Amino acid sequence: MSQLKILVLSLSNIIRLGIQQSLSDLNIGAKVYLSSEIDSAKDIIEKLKISLIIVDENIASANEFEKLTTNPDLKILYLSFRSADIFEKMHININQKELGEKLREYINPGKDIKNQEGEKGLSKRENEVVRMLSLGAGNKEIAQKLHLSLHTVLTHRKNIIRKLGIKTTSGITVYAILNGIITIEEATI
Amino acid sequence: MKPFDSKTKLAEAVFQDFNLLRVISRFGIFPGFGDKTIGEICKKKEIDPVFFLIIVNSFTNKRYFPSHELADFSLSQMVSYLQKTHTYYLDFQLPLIGDMIDNLCNNRNPENKKLMVMKQFFSAYRKELTDHINREEKITFPYVLRIEQIFSNSESIQGKESDYDMLTYEKEHDNVEEKLIDLKNIMIKYLPEPFDHEMVIRILTELSWLEKDLNEHSRIEDTIMIPRVKIMEVGIRKRF
Ligand SMILES: [Fe+2]
Ligand SMILES: [Fe+2]
Q1: How far apart, in whole angstroms, are the C-alpha atoms of residue A171 and residue B182?
Q2: Could you tell me if B110 and B133 lie in one domain?
Q3: Which DSSP state fits B113?
Q4: Given B63, B171, B192, which is nearest A21 (Cβ)?
Q5: Is B101 a member of any domain?
């Protein structure tokens, strides 16, 4: 699971630093990069595998900016001074709490935080994925052995991370041992 | 909260955040400083007060961001502070937590064999952090010092230095807190009974301190060191 990397693109130093600070206050463990022009931004996006760009809409029109990236996984969030009338926009006056919600929605579309509270423990399938991960299997191997598509495996992994709050594979292995899903002898940490 | 300045009494700053004692000890300042101000203490200990204040203020206030002062202190001073912090992790904090975790796992009363896995997980984390630190000590810091020297002596970059730059560091400078957060999380939520409860609370206290300290340390590397070195790199390239 790679780290969330966010690029903030704006001509204004104040806006760049302000967004950087707000993102760091959210404590979501994102790494934030700043840029003031499209050319160097393009460079950063490619080299550093950015997953989300927050772009000041004053810097470019939407179509101009979309041309810059061919990566379908890259998400762009526009910072708007007029109105945030579409999902891809957020208003400059957004408060801290709303910013947190917006990012969560944006990064995991369709997953409402409130729905998670009812979920307890892992499903049977998720437990099987935890077991295989702990034994050192990769995504492809898990997909083959459990007869799942790669996409489904990835979804299970995301849900496991979200439910347990454990991000690293070695952390998941420890969880599996403590919960008797595998034995300490079977595992490599 | 108003940032501390050279007229602030050091004791007052410490009262606001007790953990500052751990930070200022890296400057050779220990309890017993009386009513002296930060300025007075820095003068006596020959510490640059501008740099000292940046460290103390950014530690106590997450929103504090040094502006114009930024250009005023030397990178060698910053590198030496970061190195002292590394030494603190390697020689003090990691062994301390390691001993406590050993104690938790080897405790026969109550005995719980499953807990041994915590020991393995911690040593994996310890190795990861040690490798991260060693790479900075062997490659990054010497590079930073060299760039500062070249910059102030108007030399040119030749040979070896050109293979490595701050962008390379920025790209590979990964988050060393992930496993640590997992470790904390597992101890809080998933530790099976029986175990020494008091010991777990003490371990969690030290892990949380390490996490905060590491966060602060990485923030200095990412938001103060990287931009300053990059500016120097550009300055050097333009010269030739
Ligand atoms: Fe470091
Ligand atoms: Fe580092």
Answers
A1: 6
A2: yes
A3: G
A4: B63
A5: yes
Q: Are strands A5-9 and A89-91 parallel, antiparallel or unpaired?
A: unpaired
pLDDT of B70 higher than 80: no
Residue B180 near residue B211 (C-beta atoms within 8 A):
yes
B183 and B90 within one domain: yes
Return the DSSP state at B73: S
Weakest mean pLDDT among A78-82, A110-114, B132-136: A110-114
| CB proximity A40 to B under 8 Å | no
In this complex, is the C-beta atom of A21 within 8 Å of any C-beta atom belonging to chain B?
A: yes
ipTM for this model:
0.79
Q: What is the DSSP string of A34-47?
A: EESSHHHHHHHHHH
User: E strands, B75-233, where?
Assistant: none
Cα(B40)–Cα(B124) distance, integer angstroms: 44
The boundaries of the domain holding residue B59 are: 10-69
Query: Domain check: are B89 and B57 in the same one?
Result: no
Closest CA to A89 of A109, A81, A5: A81
Same domain, residue pair B20 and B126? no
Domains of chain A plus CATH, in order, are 5-107 (3.40.50.2300), 124-187 (1.10.10.10)
**Domain boundary, last residue among B28, B47, B69:** B69
Domains in chain B, number: 2
**Three-class DSSP category at A160:** helix
Q: Could you tell me if residue B5 is inside a domain?
A: no
Question: Is the domain of B125 the same as that of B191?
Answer: yes
* Domain edge (last residue) among B69, B91, B120: B69
CB B214 within 8 A of CB B180: yes
Do A16 and A8 meet the contact criterion of CB atoms below 8 Å apart?
yes
Q: Is residue B191 part of a domain?
A: yes
CA geometry: angle at B222 spanning B216 and B224, to 5°? 85
How do beta strands A5-9 and A31-35 pair? parallel
Which pairing describes strands A52-56 and A75-80: parallel, antiparallel, or unpaired? parallel
CA-based diameter of chain B, in Å?
70
pLDDT digits (tens, 9 = 90+) for B186-200: 999 999 888 999 999
Which among A100, A24, A148, A56 is positioned nearest to B218, based on CA atoms? Answer: A24
Instruction: Pick A171's closest partner by Cβ from B170, B182, B191.
Output: B182
Q: Examine the domain organization and report whether B43 and B103 are in the same domain.
A: no
| Separation of CA B23 and ligand 1 centre (Å) | 15
pTM above 0.90, yes or no: no
| Cα B118 to ligand 1 centre (Å) | 25
